[in-house]
# Entry
Amino acid sequence: MNPTVYGLMAEFTEPREILAAAQAAHKTGYRKMDAYTPFPVENLANHLGQPKSLVPVLVLLAAIGGGLSGFFMEWYAATISYPLNIGGRPLNSWPAFIPITFELTILSGAVAGIFGMLALNRLPEPHHPVFNVAEFERASSDRFFLCIESADPKFDLIMTRAFLEQLKPQCVWEVAP
Amino acid sequence: MNASSPEKLWRSLAELANPLEFRASRHAEFNSGDSEPHKVNRRDFLRLMGASLALAGLPACTRQPIERIVPYVKQPEELVPGNPLFYATSMTWRGFATGLVVESHEGHPTKIEGNPDHPASRGATNVFHQASLLDLYDPDRSQGITGNGEPDTWENFVSVLSDKLDSQGAKKGAGLRILTETITSPTLLNQLQLLLKKYPEATWHQFEPVNRDCVIEGSRMAFGEMVETHYYFDRANIIVSLDADFLYGHPNSIRYARDFSARRRAPQPGAEMNRLYVGESSPSVTGTNADHRLPICAGEIDGLTRALAQRVGVDAVSEHIGLPPDQQEWVGALAVDLLENRGASIVVAGENQPSAVHALVHAINHTLGNAGQTVTYAETAEAQAINQNESLRSLVRALKINAVDILVTLGGNPVFTAPPDFGFAEYLPKVKLSVHLSADVNETSKLCNWHIPLNHYLESWGDARSFDGTASIVQPLILPLYGGKSAHEILDAMILAPGRGDYEIVREFWDMKSNGDELKWRRALHDGLFEGTSASSKKVTLQAINLPPLNQRLAEPALEITFRPDPTIFDGRFANNGWLQELPKPVTKLAWDNAALISPNLAARKQLENGDIVEIGHEGRRLRLPVWITPGQPDRSVALHLGNGRRTVGNVGRRAGFDVNILRNSEAWWFADGVEIRKTGAKYQLVTTQTQHVIDSEDRQIFREGTLTAFQNDPEFVRKNSESPAASNTLFQPQEYHYDGYRWGMSIDLTACIGCNACILACQSENNIPVVGKDQVARGRVMHWIRLDTYFSGSAANPEMKHQPVPCMQCENAPCELVCPVGATLHDKEGLNLQVYNRCVGTRYCSNNCPYKVRRFNFYQYADYETPSLKPMWNPNVTVRSRGVMEKCTYCIQRISMARINSEEQNRKISDGELKTACQQVCPAQAIVFGDIGNPDSKVSKLKRHKLSFSMLGELNTRPRTTYLAKLRNPNPKMSA
Amino acid sequence: MIPASQTVAGAKPGDMVLPEKRPKGLIAPKETFESVTEDIGSIVLTQKSPRAWWFGAAVAFALLMLLLCSISWLLYRGVGIWGINIPVAWGFAIVNFVWWIGIGHAGTFISAILLLVHQQWRTSINRFTEAMTLFAVACAGLFPLLHLGRPFVFFWLLPYPDTMGLWPQFRSPLVWDVFAVSTYFAVSLIFWYAGLIPDLATLRDRAPKRAQKIIYGMMALGWRGSAVHWQNHQSAYLLLAGLAAPLVLSVHSVVSFDFSVAMVPGWHSTIFPPYFVAGAIYSGFAMVLNIVIPIRKIYRLEKFITLRHLNYMAVVMLATGMMVSYGYVMEAFMAWYSGDIFEQSMMANRAFGPYGWIFWALMVLNVILPQALWSKRIRTNPLALFLVALSINIGMWVERFVIVITSLHRDFTPSAWGMYRPTFWDWSTLFGSMGLFATLLFLFIRFLPMISISEVRKLVSEEKEAQI
# Structure
C-alpha cells in the first residue's frame, strides 16, 4: 500500500498496444486498473475484466414503466377522474390512447439511458487523480493510457513500474493522488 | 325536374359558366395585404364614440320609466333581478305598425319579438324590427337640440317657434308647412287636425322615397277612391305577383309570409299546395319562392298585364298586345291556371308599377271573382293617403316663391331621399325657420335651422295603425337616452306652448276615445293594441278603366334602370345600423355595399365582371358604381338600390355604398327606359358572405328537393337517396350514451322557408353576436351563427333559387368534439353540442373538422367591450366572447335553462312549444321547429318522422339533431319549368 | 430507406465494421488521430471565424429579429393578423410546423437508423445533422403555440393537476402532437449530448484559454474516456439509437394524424403516416445538403465530408422521393377508386381549382426535378446537388400548403367555401423562423465540434487496421 501515489500510468500510441497491455495486466493478476482511450476501443473493458454494462436493464425497466403509466393516466382521466361525452365516443377509447403510450415509453427509456450511463460512470466528477498527469490530456486526443491503481493488492511501485515498462509504452508516469 | 336525382346546384355564375377556370383568384392568390381591419374600423370609431358617451350612455340604461307601464306578464314591482320583463309595444315600418313584445332586463330592452296577438305580426318580425334595437343604442345617435348648429335648449326652441307662430296667426298660418312621412297614428292625426284648425291656411305635406303613390292612384283609377287591398294568401291556390315583393317589401309582408307558407308547410302526400307565379324586374325574396318565375323588365309588365287581363276576360283592354314568345307562353298557361281557379286566386301588382297596372289588376281580381274571396277592400290605415310626390312638389313650389316661413319636418330625410329634380335641398335654405326632428343628424338636419333629436320608439309613447287598421300602442321601455322629443311633443308645443309630455298627449286622446275607461287603456297596454279597431271590409264598385296608350320599350341597346328600396338598409334610414349593413342581402349576399345588378348576358356583352365600376347614363345624368352579376336579372334591366351612399351619417354608414338618387327623378320614379351603361375599367371591392367559387358537377345531396307531383307519386323519394348509416354500424358499443331526459332537436322546412333573413338577425340580437366590418367580411370572418345558404339551379338567365338556413347541426357523433385537445366542446346529457368559451384555447381544429362549417372564430376582439351605450343592449344571459375563442349556435341554451328553471319550479316537464329558439320565434313562415325529440308527440318529433325529413350530409354518420324537410315546388305541369 | 448496396449484412454488435465491406473514401487517407482532433477542434478553439460566418450570422440574426417582431405583433393583435378564416382556419403556422418537423427527421435518421445498420459514412455528418434536428424541432415547436387563439393557456394541453380537475382530451391528435414533439425534442437532445460528451472532454483538454477550459470542462462532466466510461457510453448510445429509430418514424406519423384523423376530404387518408415519414426524411436530407455543401467548402472539410457522403445522401433522397411520389399517385388513385364524390371533387379542385398552379409547382419541384438524381454526375456535383436539394425543400413546403389549405378551402358544404390569402405577417413568421434556425446553427458551428471527433478517430484507426 503506498498512499503517496494514486497509481502508475503507462502511455501507448496505438489501440492494439493498449488492448495487449490490458490483457497482460489482467493475466498478471492486476484488478484495480483502468484504461483511458480517445475513442471506444472494442473489448477493452472485458480485457480489463469489467462486467457487462447495466444500462440496458435500466432502459428496459424505465421504458415499460413509462408506457404503462402513460396508458393508465389516459384511461384514468377519461373514465374515472373526469368522464365526458366526447362526440359520442366511448369513454375508454383505447386505440386513441396508444400514441401517447408509445411516446412515453420512448421518453422514459431515453431518460433512463442517459442518466443511467452517467450514474454508472459516476459522472459528473469534476476532478480525478489521473488528471494530475500533464500528459494525460492527450488521452482525449491521440494517446492510450493504462493506469494500475495503488489500491490494487498486487500493486508495488517498483514491481508494477517494471511490469509496465516491459509492455514498451511511450513512458510510465506516477499519478499523484 | 326529376325529383329522385336533383339537378346540379350552383352558387355563382363563375361555376355555371366556366366550372374549372379562375381568372380573379389566380393573381389574387398571394397578395400579402395586411389582414387587419382598415384604418377606421368599427371598433376604432366605437372607441372614440364611447369616450364621448361615457356620461350620456350610462345613467340612462338602468332606470325604469316614470310613467305607469303595465308589464306583459308580470307587474314591475315583482321585478326580480335576472328575470326579464316583457312589454307590448309596436314599431312602425313604412308608416304601418307591427305589434312587438320586447324583453327588458333590469330596465333596458335587450330583445325584440313579435306580438302573437297582433294581426300584423302573429309573433314574427322582419329584419328591420329586429335591428331597430341596435338603433336605440347607436352611439352615433343625435344627442342634443341644436339651433343653427349650436347646442341649444328645448325652452329656447319652443319660445322661438311660438314667436314665429304668433306672427303666422294673422295670415292664418299661410306660411306654415308641416312635412311628415307616411302617418297612421290616430293621436298624431288628431294633433295635426287641431293644428290645421288653428292655422287653416297651413299645409301638411307627406313624403317618403319608398311611397305607394301608384297603389293609391291605381285604386282611384279602378274604384274612384283610395281603398286598401287586403290579400288572403292562405285561401289562394294560384298567386300571381307582377313585380310585387309581397313576402318581404310589402307593409304587411310578415302576415302575408305566414299566410303564404301556410299552404306549403310540411306538405302531406295528397295535400294541396299553392302555386306562385312571379314576373319581376329583379330577383326578390318573393321571386325566389316562385314556382314559375319570369324575368321581365319593369316597363314590360304593363303590356304583360294587359295581355293577361285580355285573356281572363277584362273588357278594359281592347287593342292587341304583341308579346315576346316566352312571355306569350307564360301568360297563356298562367291565364288558364287562373281561370281554372276562379275565386281561389290572387293577382298582386308591385308598388313600382304604374297606376294603370294596379287598376287592371283590380279588374282582373274582380273578373276572376277573387274580390270578396281571396281579396278584400277596406278603408286604408293611412291617416291621409295622398300622392306624396305631388305633395312634395307642391311644397317645393311654395319654397321657390318664398311662401314658406316655417317648415317643420317630422322625421324623414328628404334632402337625401328626394331626387335632385325636386329641388328640395336647393330651396330648403330659403325658409326662415326650418325645424327637423330626426334620430340622427342627417343631410336634412344640416340644412335646417333647428335639429331636435327624435326619440326611439322604445323611448316614447305613441300609437299607430297596422296595415289592417288595428290601432296599436307604442309603449316605452326606457327613458330617453339623450333627452329627445317625439313628434307628438313638437306638435303639442305648436298647438299650445310649452306643450306636454307624449304620455299625457297619447293618454288624453285615448281617454277621449274610450271616455276615460281606465280598464280599456290597461288592457290595450297589456295586449299592445285596441281590440276591434281593424278596418272592416268595404264594398267597392269597379269603374270603367280608360287605359293610357301602352308605351313601347325603346329599341336595343337601350337599357332600363329600376329603383327599389335596399333589402337591408331600406331607404337609408338604417344606414348606420351595423347589423343590417352586415346582413347579406337576399340572392346577391352582398354586405356593406350596393351595386348595379345586371344579368349574366349583359355582363358578357359588356365584358363586365363583379366589382367592375360602370357609368350609367340617363338623360345626361351620370352615375358610377360597381356591378354585380345577378342570375335571374332581366337582360335589359339594371337594378339599383336606394338608401346607400349616405353623406351625413354615423361611422357605420360612412363609405358604405353608392347614392343612386342622382339618376332618379319624379318622372323616372321607379324605373326609366333609354339608359346606357359603359365600362370604366375601374374596380371596386364588393364583399359577400358566401364567397364566389366553382363547384364540382357531382350532386352533393346537401339540398334535397323535388316537385309536389313527384312527391305524390313516390312519398319516399327523399328517403331513398339518403345514406345515413345505421346507428349500430360502429366498432364501439352504439349505446354508450343514453339520453333519457330531454333530447333537443330541430327541424327546418325548406319548402316553408322564404329566405327573409329574419332568423340571422334574431340570432345576432339574442346571442350578442358582434359586427365585424366590411374588411373582415371580405376575409371570410363573418360571425353569424345561423346563415342562409342560397343555391341556384337551371339556367343563369332564369334559375330556380332555394334557401337553406344552416345553424349548428348539434351532431350526436360530433366531429368537432373529437379533435378538441382540451375538451372545450363536448356533449351534455340532453345531447347538446356545447362550446365552453372559457376552456377554449383556440386551435380552430373543431372548425376544420366541421363538415357544415357552422363554427365561428374570434380572430380579433370583435365584441365591443368599450362603448358604454352598447353594453345595456347585450343579453345578460349570454357570454360576450373574447378574442381567440370559438363560438357557434347553442340552440339558445340560455332559453332552454330558463324554461327548465320555470318548469322545475312547478314540478313539471317543459311542455312542447313552450320553449322557442330565437330563429324559430322570429320566423314569419314558421319554417323552424325546435323541441324535445325524446317526446314522440312533440311537433319536432312528428316532423322528423315526416317523409320529407333528411339530415344534411347524413352519410358522414354525424347524426345531426338538426334535420330538414326537403323542398317541394308546385310547377304547372303544362309549363316547362 | 437504406440503399440496399450500403446495408451491411449480418453485422454482429461489437465488431462495428467489417473492413472488406467498409466503403472506401469516407475519409482522406493520411489522416491521423492528431490531425483529426486538430482540424475539427481548432475550428472551435483557435481559428478565426471566416467572413462567410459573420455575414451568414448577421443575416440570420436579422431574420430572427423579424420573427420576434412578428410574434410581438401577433400576441398584441391576435391571430387575425394572418390570412386564416373560416373555412381555412389553419394556415402557414401549421404548414411551417409540419415542414420544420419533417426537416428534423433527417438528423435522427442519419444518427440513429444509419448507426443501427452500420453505415460508417454517417460518422462525419451525424453530429451536424443531430444539431439540425434539434433546431428544426425548436422552430417547429413555436408554431403550435403561436397559432393558438389564446397562446397564454397553451399548458391546458398538458396533463397537470388542474384546480378544476380537468384533463387534456386524449382523443385529440393535437394532444398526441404535444407528447410526440416534446418527446422527440427531449430524446434528440439526450442523444446529441451523449455523443457530444467525449468531444467536449477533448475540447476541455486542448482549450488554450482558461474560460474555454472551464466551460467545456463543466459540459464534459469530467469525462476521462476510461474503458468503463466507454463501455456504458457505447451501450447507452446504441440503446438511444434503438429508441430514436422508432421514435423518428412515430413522430411524423403522429403529425400526419392531425390530418388523417379529421374527416376533411384530402386529410382523411390512411396513407398519410408512411407518406409523411418518407416526405420528412426527403426534406430532411435536402436540408442537410443545403447546409453541408456550403459549410464543407467554407471550412474546407472536404476531407471529412467527401463526395461519397453527398452521393449517399442523394441516393437516400432519390429513394424517399420516389416513395413520396408514390404517395401522390395513390392519393389521386384512391380518390377516384373510392367513388366518394367529396374525395373526387377534392382531387379535381386540388389539381384544377384556384390553387391548381401550386399543385403543379409541387409536382415539378418534388417529382420531376429530383429525377436528376438518377445520374451519378449530378449526385457527385455539389452545386447541382445543392440546387436539387433546394427545389425539394421548397417543394416539401408547398406539399404541406397543398395538403392543409387546398383541402380546407373547399370541403363538404359549397356555400361555406372560401379562399386563403397569406398576409405580410404569414410570410414574416415563416422567414423569421428560418432566421431562428440559422442563428442557432451558426452558434453551433462556432462553439461546438460540428463533426464527432471521437468517432472519426475510430474511423481513422479502422482505416489503419484496414491497411495492415
